[in-house]
Amino acid sequence: MLLNPFKASDSLLRGTANDLKPFALNIKLMSFDPAFSTSYLVAFIMGLFSSMHCIGMCGSIIGTLTLSLSPAIRNNKKLLLPFVFNYNFGRITSYTLAGAAAGVIEGLLTFHLGETHGHRLLQLVSATIMAGAGLYIAGWFPRFAYIEKSGTRLWKLLEPYGRKLIPVKNRSQAYLFGMVWGWLPCGLVYSALALAATAGDVGKSALTMLAFGLGTLPAVMGVGIMTHILTRLSRIQRFKQIIGLLMIVLALFAALPWLNPMAFTTTHTAIH
Questions:
Q1: What confidence tens digit (pLDDT) does each residue in 12-39 have?
Q2: Residues 159 and 10: beta-carbon distance below 8 Å
């Protein structure tokens, strides 16, 4: 029986190729990840950085509300902690809702301008506001506080409802008051909202603000040694300047994410 030399060589080549597949080279490629500017880690870090501001404003609010509680609760940390937690849980709930609203605004803007141009515009606006917040924390741009006037009208509508909840008598009231408190005009919250507006959809925008809110917790829980430490650090001008500069770096990465090594993810491509 005669063998066809062409078929034989074809079979040999196929077999050789199959044998070589397990030895294919895996080469690491760096692919750009534009989602860095809206990463939850960045939002959480922003929340921690904003503690230098929150420890003064929000900390005093918690102090005032704590004084409105009965002495039995106020003088017992085990009883006081759930109230403080509910204040903050309500506040972070409002941040999350505001983040969802920012996501809706992003969707409307990108719908009219196009996804690419709209998202890029929001990135630049977000970076500008973040840089302003960094300069504000460092003490170099006190006029940044004027951005808080943009939320004054909404606050005037909500503030009377918060006033009706004082004195706080139970945890539900504490949570509701916290929700009202979450809409208090704050330039640093607005900088986080600007970041959330670049997240890509409503859910991610809401989660971005949730991460920001969790980052603010160490400064405003009002109990424990962390608050004492942050209070001392907030009085050191050099420390505030360092925090401000770090905020400006984050703003730079938000505007030009390709400059940041964290904006790249590792993937594997096999060459056969």
A1: 445 544 544 443 333 333 333 444 444 6
A2: no
Q: Which residues are registered as beta bridge partners of 266? A: 30
Distance, in Å, from the CA atom of 209 to the CA atom of 128, rounded to the nearest integer, reads: 18
Q: Which domain, by its residues, includes 44?
A: 36-266
What is the structure's pLDDT at 138? Answer: 84
Tell me if 13 is assigned to some domain: no
Strands (DSSP E) contained in the chain are 25-32, 264-271
CA distance 231 to 53: 10
Judge whether 199 lies within some domain: yes
Please enumerate in sequence order all residues whose Cβ is within 8 A of that of 265, keeping only pairs 6 or more positions apart, or say none.
30, 31, 33
Domain total for the chain?
1
Integer angstrom CA distances of residue 140 from 133, 191, 253:
10, 17, 21
Instruction: List beta partners, residue 29.
Output: 267
Count of other CB atoms within 10 angstroms of residue 118 = 18
- Asked if residue 144 belongs to a domain, the reply is yes
Q: How far apart are CA 157 and CA 53, in angstroms?
A: 24
At 69-98, the pLDDT tens digits run 888 888 888 888 888 899 899 999 999 999
Per 3-state DSSP, the chain is made up of helix, strand and coil in percentages (nearest 5) of: 80, 5, 15
In one-letter notation, the amino acid at residue 190 is: Y
Alpha-carbon gap, residue 76 to 69, rounded angstroms: 11
Q: Which residues pair with 30 in a beta bridge?
A: 266
The answer as to whether 63 is a domain residue is: yes
Residue corresponding to tokens 């009706």: 164
β-sheet bridge partners, residue 269: 27
Non-local (6+) Cβ contacts of 6 within 8 A are none
